[in-house]
Amino acid sequence: MHSIHVYTACGDDPLNNAVAPRCAERAIEICAGLVDLAQIGNGVAHTLPRQTICFDEWNVWDPKRAPGEQGAEERYTLSDALAVAVWLNVFVRQSKFVGMANIAQSVNVISPLMTTKDGLVKQTTWWPLLLFCKYMRGWTVATHVSGGAYEGETELKWIRATVDTPWLDVRLQSVKMAG
């Protein structure tokens, strides 16, 4: 597998934060194209399985809100939960290329679950993960939705030039999901 590693978060701008994971989609498309070029350039037979991408770490993390030197214990917002849902949609859309995607970390540090002396706290980012685990089964449905797009500033300036940022993140391909 080829590895990609990205975190997104955009401080106080909830719209920018929610569209930021689309940069991962572009990174996957670029990486998949480079894998194709490498296979072609090296004469790899089309009968061999194509190399897949491992998104070895992904998550929403704002180092200003949760500095690493202070434990990186992020307190997530609704905007962060929406960003996680967009991340998950990206992985579904790009499942042809992505063989594995690992959220970093799952407990305490930049995570959807926090432990306290009184028990477990499920942060806002926990819920999209739970919903995807519970309901993303079978076939996705190819859709076409026409509507507006976020036109504001993005944390990574290149996103505006290379990636669409629609208000509705529903552009799915027909893909058989693991059941």
TrEMBL record:
Q: Which Pfam families match?
A: Alpha-L-AF_C
Signal peptide (from-to):
none
This protein's pathway reads: Glycan metabolism; L-arabinan degradation
Tell me which InterPro entries the record gives: Alpha-L-AF_C (IPR010720), GH (IPR017853)
Q: What GO biological process term is on the record, naming one?
A: polysaccharide catabolic process
Transmembrane residue ranges: none
Q: Which PANTHER family match?
A: ALPHA-L-ARABINOFURANOSIDASE C, ALPHA-L-ARABINOFURANOSIDASE C-RELATED
Q: What does this protein do?
A: Alpha-L-arabinofuranosidase involved in the degradation of arabinoxylan, a major component of plant hemicellulose. Acts only on small linear 1,5-alpha-linked L-arabinofuranosyl oligosaccharides.
Q: What is this protein called?
A: Alpha-L-arabinofuranosidase C-terminal domain-containing protein
